[in-house]
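1st attempt posting a full record on here, be nice pls
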Amino acid sequence: MWQVARDPRLATDVQALRMAEQLLVRHASQDSPLASSRLREALRILERADAAHSPDPRVRFLYGRLLTRSERHEQALRVLSAAIDEAPDHPSVADALFSLAICHASLGRTQEEIAAYQRLLQRQWVPERRSIVQSNLAESLMFVGRIEEAIQTYREAIATDDGNILARWGLAVALDRAGDSMGAFEQVNEALVRDPLADELDNPLVFFVPAYDRFWYFALWAMSRAHGEHDALLRADHWQAAAQYWQRYIEAAPAEDRWVAVARVRRDQCVRSLGMVHRRAHPRKGTPR
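the predicted structure (as tokens):
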């Protein structure tokens, strides 16, 4: 009360904060047009209150997170960075650092993203959330070619929360890129036990950096299904789908992509496996003498 009396602006900011939070609580986890509308409305409330310059760090942290959700990443970086620097020990810093890392990832600033996740790990101890941070960090490490560190960090994410299915998918990709195909498919199979239709890969809240990386995940999924399928026609379908996913990765990847050569090898393996299925299903008749 006395703080508000000394700085009348705080009363306006607190009111804006509460109004924005009330809108978000009702639609926090819904991926729908109504939720998007509420998000825009909450942003308008904060912007009318000049949230970027609020003396209340809670207002700036929330504003920065909402800018991130709205994919206004450059603006979010400015707001969040300033708020974190000015209130580094605030309880909201953990959420702010996570949003900061997402902004850096979306803008292709991988080293800054890695630094944000590493800083976040020093204060995030809730197992489920910590595991997500670890798996996101592992993905960033893999992107810059630090594959052994990525593998270790994925394993740490799984040890922290065995239910982190995306960490298993990420570990499968990292192992495959490191040349451990057997280990990769072990992780794919573990993920499919928990998520048989690989729904997590299609989760609207999940994004891949680079975007075409998703084809690698789906290619491993199709290959795993081909390995486990007894019906020849279905097995052929899975090998064909896998080859197509690899081809889509190859076509989308720039020339400097560090993994494209491996993708070509995997595509060719799938094409050969598809050919073997066809030959076994339609053996050539012997030439009569």
